[in-house]
Amino acid sequence: MKPLLRAVLIVDALILLAFGLLFLLTPWKSLYDALQLAQTDPVLVGQGFGIALIGLAWLALHASIDGAMTATAAKVVGHVNWLTGVLMLVWLAGLHTPSLSGLDQLVAVAMGAVLLVIGLGGVRLAGVVRRRDRLAGTAAAERADRVDARDSANEARKADRERERNAARPGDVYPAGAPRAVEPMPGTTRSGSAASPVSPATGHPVEPDLTAAAPGPSAARSREDALARERAAAADEEASARERAAADAKSGATRPPFHG
User: Fold this and answer.
1) Is 259 a residue whose pLDDT tops 50?
2) I need a labelling partner for 258 at 20 to 30 A (CA). Which of 127, 130, 160, 243 fits?
C-alpha cells in the first residue's frame, strides 16, 4: 500500500505544481485570455495562493521519497485536494460563477471531480498505511521485549548454574577469575622443596640420611654387608666365650685342693 500512496503523492505534487504556477502567473493577462480563464483580482491574492500551492507540491514530492513523512503528508495533501474539488464543483457547476462556455465549464467540473477523487483516495490510503505502520511498530516492540526477556532468563539461569556449581565445589568458593592460593603439601615448604626434619633436642634441622633415603641396589647391598658384619662379630664373641670357658675349666682341674 505504501508504494501506491507514494504514486498518489507524486500525482498530487504535479497537480499542485501546475495550479501553483498558474496562479503565480496571475499578472500575465494575455495568458489568462488565451486560456479563457478568469483572472484573479487582486493579483496579490492569486500569487500568494500560487506560492502556497507550490509549497504543498514540494511537500508532497518530498513525502513520496521520505517514508517517515509519507502517511502524514498524504493525509494533509489529500484533504486539501478534495476540499478544493468540492469548492470548484460548488462554484462552477452549482452557481456557474464565473460563467464559462460549455467546453470550459465541462473541463473545470471534470478537474474538480478529479481533485475530489484523488484527495479522498489519498486520505484513505494514508489511514491504511498509518495503521499498518503502527501495527508493525507494535510487533517490533513486542519482539524486542521478548528477546530482552529471553536474554534476561538465560542470564539468570546461567547465574543459578554457576551458584550451584560453586556450592557443590568442596572447600572455599572463589569468584570466577580470582587467583586461588595453593596450599603447600605436607612436608614441603611454599617454594615446593621438602622441609628438613628438626631435632627435638637441639632444635636445629637434621640432615637427611642420603644412604637410607636413596633407594636402589646400593642401599640393599649396604644392608646385607652390615648384617654379615654383625653375624661375624657375634660368631667371634661366641668363640671367645668358648675359649675362656675351656681355659677356666683347665685351670680348675690343675689347682690343688684347699686344705684348711
Assistant:
1) no
2) 243
pTM of the model: 0.51
In a domain, 89, yes or no: yes
- Among 144, 148, 159, 9, which Cα is nearest to 75's? 9
Alpha carbon distances (Å) from 158 to 100, 131, 147, 152 = 83, 40, 16, 10
Asked if residue 26 is part of any domain, the answer here is: yes
Please name which of 153, 81, 165, 176 lies closest in space to residue 120, comparing C-alpha atoms. 81
Separation CA 239–CA 241 (nearest Å): 5
Phi, psi dihedrals of residue 181, rounded to the nearest 5°: -70, 135
Instruction: Count Cα neighbours of 37 within 13 Å in the Cβ-side half-sphere.
Output: 19
Backbone angles phi, psi at 194, to 5 degrees: -70, 140
Percentages helix, strand, coil for the chain, rounded to the nearest 5?
A: 75, 0, 25
Task: Determine the pLDDT at residue 185.
Answer: 52
Please determine, for residue 235, whether its predicted confidence score (pLDDT) is greater than 70.
yes
Alpha-carbon distance of 231 to 90, in angstroms, equals 147
33 lies in a domain?
yes
**pLDDT tens digits, one per residue of 26-82:** 888 888 888 777 777 788 888 888 899 899 899 989 988 888 888 888 888 889 888
3-class DSSP state of 99:
coil
Cβ atoms of residues 115 and 14 within 8 Å = no
Residue range 169-182: mean pLDDT, rounded: 52
Of 165, 7, 8, 175, residue with least CA distance to 77: 8
Instruction: Look at residue 166 and tell me if it is in a domain.
Output: no
* Residue range of the domain that includes 47: 2-142
